[in-house]
Design a protein that fits this description.
heterodimer, A: 6 helices, B: Rossmann fold, six-stranded parallel beta sheet, 11% strand
């Protein structure tokens, strides 16, 4: 029964958080602030224990003590002391606090921004190209395309209703794709009457997509809600409350 | 190490060249950018907060400084901070990531300096970082919006499951809220709880719309041109697939196969 206090606390916090659906309250705020404080404290400990201590401090300490051994030569390895150099870029961030030495911090921030720009360019290309190729879909219901040219499920038997349905589906996809791309053109005027129809269709496609995503996400949240309700009904009510009540009222 | 092949290299050079050409053209004539309702309404929201004497709360997204979305958010942060400084509105920026914090602080400081209000800038109050944890960030932002109470709240960046947690209290309190997120996952929640929502690519265009910087606007024109190229590639590929059918030979088949191999390689 070592988990008993934890289960009661978790049940209390869960009920208090649910109470927000009715009204904001002092107890809800108390729980919220307690969670904030606890999470900040946990983050500090986790950062030290899981990142800084094993990956940074431990190699330095082992090298300084001479207990780090190079497996190739079986001699003490002092390479871990090089991790001290990581202090230099790390400490550069703190020059943000100084008006006089502020420029030193721009060295590290500039390095970060430059890296970000380079990575973003590469990542965008790597992201777009597969999407582009996946957008190329067969439209002819009378021909079975070479499987090497297909991305996705196998193409149905040509000429069958299933092939027609797949071709229609792909045509709709292509139209929605082009219209959505057109909706996101910003440097051209799209108020011409001939351009209104594709723009509206693009907007409609986006809304349908958002609606589907909303439904999907709500379902996921419902799963979380059910998990919490299961916890309250089983772990807390059945295994804690119903066990405790007879002891309290029955004198057992 | 990955190396680009012929088509990939050609596209990278083409896209890079298009952007450079657009930047060069933008220097001679500032390109047109169509109005985006969510961005146009920021001025109204900040003005309303000023009239009410309540703070403007700006919440950055959850990406770090290596995320390109964060850079787009920072350009909008600059616009909003300048607007708030000009109107002498109280302004608070909430930052999710520690490596974004110094950038945000610099941008807000510069915004106040440019608007002649440098003496009004108080970094410890106006640019806040509490924890790297997503839930702490979301809850503290929501609590701030509710308790201040905020005159308006702006959410710009990539948000994850915390979007509803952040925006729901403001929606209940009747705070004017505007959100922008380039990824579509959280947009439906923002649509439900915010007065205006900036979706998808509009997010990147927002920075160009609020800026009269030829570089930013030129880049946007370049991106539009890249979209045309991508749409043409899809059309060419679909046409080639239609013509190639199940033949397995010929130029149409080779074209379709060349484009499709990027999928089969992944």
């Amino acid at each position: 029964m070592t988990d008993t206090p934890v289960i009661w606390l978790a049940a209390f916090v869960t009920v208090v958080v649910f109470s927000y659906a009715l009204k904001d309250s002092y107890i809800y705020r108390l729980v919220q602030h307690a969670t904030l404080g606890a999470t900040v404290g946990v983050t500090v400990v986790v950062t030290w224990k899981q990142v800084l201590l094993p990956r940074w401090w431990a190699p330095i300490w082992a090298a300084a003590q001479g207990t780090a051994i190079d497996p190739a030569t079986s001699r003490p390895d002092y390479g871990g002391l090089l991790w001290l150099l990581a202090l230099i870029p790390g400490l550069l961030w703190y020059f943000q606090l100084s008006k006089k030495w502020f420029w030193l911090s721009t060295l590290i921030t500039g390095l970060f921004v430059g890296t970000a720009a380079g990575l973003a360019f590469k990542n965008q290309i790597l992201l777009i190209m597969p999407q582009l190729a996946a957008s190329i879909k067969p439209l002819n219901p009378f021909v079975r395309p070479d499987p090497a040219l297909l991305y996705g499920p196998a193409w149905p038997e040509p000429g069958t209703p299933a092939a027609w349905a797949a071709a229609l589906n792909n045509a709709l996809f292509l139209a929605a794709l082009l219209a959505t791309l057109f909706y996101f053109f910003f440097s051209v005027r799209t108020d011409h009457r001939f351009l209104q129809a594709p723009r509206r269709f693009g907007r409609l496609a986006i809304m349908v997509c958002l609606g589907a995503m909303f439904g999907s996400t709500v379902m996921t949240r419902m799963a979380y809600l059910l998990d919490r309700l299961m916890f309250l009904s089983h772990d807390w009510w059945q295994e804690q409350v119903l066990v405790l009540l007879p002891r309290v009222w029955g004198g057992g | 190490m990955q190396h680009p092949d012929g088509l990939m290299l050609t596209l990278m050079l083409l896209f890079g060249g298009v952007i450079l050409l657009s930047l060069w053209r933008a220097r001679h004539k500032l390109p047109y950018v169509r109005p985006i309702p969510g961005i146009v309404s920021i001025e109204e929201a900040v003005g309303r907060a000023t009239e009410l004497g309540r703070p403007v709360v700006f919440a950055m997204g959850e990406g770090d400084i290596r995320d390109i979305v964060t850079h787009a958010s920072l350009s909008i942060l600059e616009y909003v901070a300048r607007l708030a400084a000009r109107l002498r509105a109280s302004f608070i920026a909430m930052v999710r990531k520690p490596d974004v914090y110094p950038f945000a602080e610099n941008i807000v400081r510069d915004a106040y300096r440019v608007e002649g209000a440098a003496e009004d800038f108080r970094p410890e109050e106006q640019v806040r970082f509490l924890s790297d944890d997503a839930i702490v960030y979301a809850m503290s932002t929501a609590r701030l919006i509710q308790e201040a109470p905020a005159g308006c709240a702006l959410f710009f960046g990539g948000f994850f499951f915390t979007s509803l947690l952040m925006t729901e209290p403001g929606a209940q309190s009747g705070v004017l809220q505007i959100a922008g997120d380039p990824t579509l996952g959280q947009i439906p929640f923002f649509v439900c709880t915010c007065d205006y929502t900036i979706i998808g690519e509009e997010f990147f265009a927002a920075g160009a719309y609020v800026s009269s910087d030829p570089t930013v606007r030129g880049a946007l024109v370049g991106q539009d041109f890249i979209k045309v190229v991508l749409a043409l590639l899809v059309l060419v590929g679909t046409g080639a697939l239609l013509l190639a059918g199940g033949a397995g030979e010929g130029p149409a088949y080779e074209t379709a196969r060349g484009l499709m191999k990027y999928v089969t390689q992944k």
